[in-house]
Structure formats: C-alpha cells, structure tokens
Amino acid sequence: MHLYKNIKSFLMDQEYFIDIYDKYLHVYEFIDILVLNEEEISLQLEKFKLIVKGSDFRILKLTKNEILASGKVLEMRFIS
Amino acid sequence: MNYLWLKVKLSEKNRLLLKCYKNKLFIYDSNEDQKYFYFKIKSEDQKLLKKVSYSKVKVVDETGIPKIKKYFKKYFIFIVSLIIGLIIFVLLTHVIVNVSIVHSNKEIRDLLSVALEKKGIKKNTWKKSFKEIEEIKESILNEYPTKLEWLEIEVKGMNYIVRVEERKIHEKESVKTSCNIVAIKDGLVKKLIYSKGEALVKTNDYVKKGDILISGTLMKDEEVKSVVCATGKVYAEVWYKATIKVPLVREENILTGKVRYNLKVKNNNYDNLIFRCSLKDYNIETYPLFKLFNTSFSFVKEKEIIKKEIAYTDEELNNEAERLVNEKVSQILSDNEYIINKKVLQTNKLENSLEVVYFLALLEQIGEQQSF
Hints:
By secondary structure, chain A is mainly beta. Chain A has 1 helix and 6 strands; from the N terminus they run αββββββ.
C-alpha cells in the first residue's frame, strides 16, 4: 500500500482534476457536494465553487473526493 | 474486495446520493432502470446504511468471498460429489488392476510373473513412473540374461501389458563336410539352384526317389578332386492323385428374427450370462460396455437360428470340390512351390456325397542333403 500511495502521489501531484469528456464528467479532489440532481452538479473545491449544468446527469462513482458522472454538459462555471 | 449491490426507488436517488456522501458511504458503481437505482458499496460500509436511515434500500447481489460462500452453500452437495468424483478418478487412473504377460511359453510367463512381482509390478498397486519401469525392465533383463532377450512393459489404461521375447541359444549345427543332394520323390526336374557340388541331372530329366541330383564329390578326369557338402535346391514336377469328397447338402443357419437381450460379465476369462437364454439354437453378438478392475461387462444379443439343410447345385458341388483340393494342396506346398496343372479324372456320385478324383501336377522341391 505504501508503494501504491507513492505512485499515486507521484502521478497525481495536482491539487484537483476536472475532466470533461463527450458524455462524462470527472472531478477529483473536491471538498463538498452542494447540489446534486439530473440537471446540476455543484461542487466545492478548495479555492472555488464549480457549477456544472446539463441534462441526464447520472452518478457512476461517488467517493470522498472523487465524482464520476455521465450526462450532457451544457454549461460550466467557476465561482471564486 | 467485497462489495454489495443495492437498489432503491429511482425517485429517491438524488436524496440518497447526497445523504450517502454526507455519511461517507461511498458509491463505486451505479446503474439504473425505469424503476430502480442500483448502486455498489463496500460490504464493510453496510452499517453506514443505518445512518443514512434508508430502510427501503434492498440488497440485490454481492461480490467477492460472501458470494462464493453463498454459492458454496447452495451447491454444497454438487461440489462435494464433484471433488469426491475427481479424487476417485485420479485414484483409478493411477492404479493398476491387471498385469498380463504375453508369451506362449508358460515357463517364461511364470518366471516373469515372479520377477515382476518382486519389483512391485503387480495387481492393485500404484502405477510406476516411466523411469521406474525402465529401471525394472533393465534389472529383470540383467537378472535373466540367458532366458530373456527383450522385454517391454506397456501401460494401457489400468493394465500393464508385458511383452517378452525368449532368448534362444541355437546350438551350432554340425558342419557337414561331405554330402549329396538326393531326390526324395519321383519327378521331372524343372529347376536347379545350387552353390556347391556338381549337378548330375538337368532340366526335364526324370528322376526317381533316391537318385543323386547334386553330387558332393567333384571329379576331374575320372579322379576325385575334392569332396564338399552339396548345397542347393532342385525343383521338379511331381504328380499326385487326390480324392475329394463333398457332401451333397450343407447346413445353414437361418435367423428367425427372434432376439433376446442379456448381460455378460467376464471375470478371469470366465463368461457368465446374467439371464438364462430360452432359445434353443442361437448366435451371440457381444457389445462391450465397460471394464471395472478385472471384470468386463458386455451387452449381449442372442439371435435365434434354425439349422436348415440345403442341397448343393452341381456347380456349387464342383466349386466346393475345387476349393477343398486347393486348400489341401496349399497345406503341403512351401515357398516357390505351386500347382502346375490340375485335372478332374473321375466323378462318382455316392449316396450322401460326391467323390471327385483329381490329377495334380505340382512344382516341388525334391532335393535333400544326405551325408556320405
């Protein structure tokens, strides 16, 4: 596990990730979930708030600091 | 890692997700259909479900060790039977139930059977490895160098088949120093093949029994030059009269179509039929089923027959007589000997048989070495 942690910290040396694919949204290292429904996902990150609006959002994975959702992203806003 | 798949009504989904997140109940995969939302959590997080206070959540499936345990409980009898079956199979394929020694000489068979038993090649024992068998073969051959020429131990299923070649020590034939080749039958010489000696006859000479054909005494100018052992072969046309009797009727078995089924158990070359056959005359057809240790089981069809006497036609009688005479002659002829001519001298129709007298002209080897 020690080795795994080392590799992980080596590869993920960023504070956070926000990845948007064709039909997926992946956010890593968020702090809290503010809104979660089919049309909107709002997340609190360390330095800003992320608001993603779209349609048919479905949560595929949800852990302490990582969220993977499928759906169509229409709008994205960062609020400091 | 052990996981649980849970389901909840689709309308509860968003509220549940937020509650789960707040209570640190993490979701590792999810899916949904028209009615339900399915999600995957760690088995150890199941206790957190109470905090989420979602009594409507139902467990649908589980993965990892609990699932294996569940399957094991469900198919316990099948799995145990399978394991026992496999163990029995492995045991049976590694056990020898019969050792058969293939040789016509009983003395060799007995000798080998004792030697093999000493080395551990016997019934109801574990199979030996290839290396062990090779070592046993070598040690037995070394033990009996004057009796055994060659030995092979073949593993066939649960049997050892031992093939052996007996060592035959031939005594050296006493070397003849002076001999002639003499006719043992009357005949007309057709072919002479010789490597030593002097031919006293030539092709188409008529010779009588006792005549010297190839002489071992080599002459020159009426003087004996040297004496050798004449070696060679003299082929001559020899005439015979043979009488063949053919019965006028033959017995034929005709199937009536009645069939009885039976089971045969063969143990140590003894056949035992399970059911007694009610048919008077019948033919047997055997269909092997399986072999267990020393006992083989076969399925048997007993087909009823009627014995019927059928009269030969004239043509069939002649053909049968011809076949019998050929068969008789072929028994006395050796290599390079054959029938030159064959004629029917006389045919007598007796009460129950036909008697045919043949004249036969055969090409035969008539020379024999005789010392002088």
